[in-house]
Design a protein that fits this description.
single chain, mainly alpha
């Protein structure tokens, strides 16, 4: 766990030097939420009805902005290969890197969600479920995104390919996340969807480090 902590701290220092990488997804989310609210001005009922789905779609799209550089910086300066070769348990530094990625991009979205949900005309009773669904669902987004980022790390201009790889994998998160918010807000259920999101996150956190490690080895061998 000490290796995980050291890698986590290293990632935070790197993100502090390149703040735009961490801020771009949040800025994109704020801008797109505002644009939706402006576009549907005067149609508050329609906006409120689809707000949960719109918000989840924008969260998934904004996550792509930070994924392309997740491993690329280390790949280009050669430190990625050293991390994989020198670590006694190679997937431990990967866990630290993925946790830092979620803390820098997923956690701010969770904290900002009540305010952004209000902009999208979500009713007050839906703001808590929205934050809760994001809290248990965004780890899956970060972990699956890390697998895709590892696969394209050696590909020049792999951002478009990354989107094609990971967006289909996000569909279950989108479905359960939207259903959880709408169901809990309406009082018709939604707890089961929260459990499904939590189960997917646990599974992703458990398996994604091994998948990322295998994908990085393939990328390094082909690079």
């Amino acid at each position: 766990m000490g290796l995980v902590r050291l890698q986590f701290q290293r990632e935070w220092r790197l993100l502090a030097r390149a703040r735009s990488e961490a801020l771009n997804p949040l800025v994109f989310l704020i801008m797109t939420v505002t644009l939706f609210a402006l576009a549907l001005d005067g149609q508050a009922q329609a906006l409120s009805r689809y707000a949960a789905g719109i918000f989840w779609v924008l969260v998934l799209l904004s996550s792509l902005l930070s994924l392309d550089g997740m491993f690329r910086r280390d790949f280009e300066d050669g430190s990625l290969e050293q991390i994989l070769l020198l670590a006694e348990v190679p997937f431990l530094p990967i866990i630290g890197k993925m946790l830092a990625q979620w803390a820098a991009t997923g956690l701010p979205v969770v904290l900002m969600s009540p305010l952004l949900g209000t902009v999208l005309q979500l009713p007050p009773e839906a703001l808590g479920p929205l934050a809760g669904a994001l809290l248990v669902g965004t780890p899956t987004v970060s972990m699956l995104g890390a697998v895709g980022a590892a696969l394209v790390v050696g590909v020049r201009r792999g951002g478009a390919l990354l989107g094609l790889l990971v967006l289909p994998l996000y569909i279950p998160v989108l479905i359960f996340g939207t259903a959880a918010v709408n169901g809990l807000a309406a009082g018709t259920g939604g707890v089961a969807q929260i459990y499904w999101l939590a189960a997917m996150s646990v599974l992703a956190v458990t398996l994604a480090p091994f998948a990322v490690h295998a994908a990085l080895k393939i990328s390094l061998e082909n690079g």
